[in-house]
Amino acid sequence: MFSWLEKNPFFFAVAVFILIAYAGVVEILPDFANRARPVEGTKPYTVLQLAGKHVYIKESCNACHSQMIRPFKSETDRYGMYSLSGEYAYDRPHLWGSKRTGPDLWRVGNYRTSDWHENHMKDPTSVVPGSIMPAYKHIFDKNADIETAYAEAYTIKKVFNVPYDTEGMPKLGSFEDASKQARTEAAEIIAQMKDESIKTAFERGEIKEIVALIAYLNSLK
Predict the structure, then answer these.
(1) Is 143 helix (H, G, I), strand (E, B) or coil?
(2) Mean per-residue pLDDT, 121-129
(3) Where residue 29 falls among pLDDT bands split at 50, 70, 90?
């Protein structure tokens, strides 16, 4: 058989390709599956954080900021531990990005505060002199879309078996339950903010987009 393959280079090449492909599948796929499993401590986003992620996408923050720290010393020195695939297990869609007009934000929750984000979104140059980022004052006026965020969380729980409502994971329950939890989270963030209009709106039962966005950014650790 081997002598026949040697005399027929086309079939020999096909046989070699099949052998290498099979070996690659056997070697790579099991490890790939293990690495894709959630890292210990990784949790799905809460409803408020999801609402903030929607604001992040809507305002195209991912066009200038990546969310993937590469395993290079220059990046780990600046941003922290390099990203692991299992950290994105519940990230749908992931926002790795491909351009860094601004810094990577994957671990921004480790070194920025709610108060810092408030000032940065209202007037970037007040905290980063020379920043070319535009101000996002309009998100201080618009209400966060909690209903859509809840609908997404409920959908991915049912379709992808995301472990909401399990021990140690965010609670989802009914929309009323999720809304109460969102208000509890929002209250903690607003207590650290200075903008009185945000506080007044919250007393009226409103959660502004800036609050949801801060909740999302604070979760990136």
Answers:
(1) strand
(2) 96
(3) low
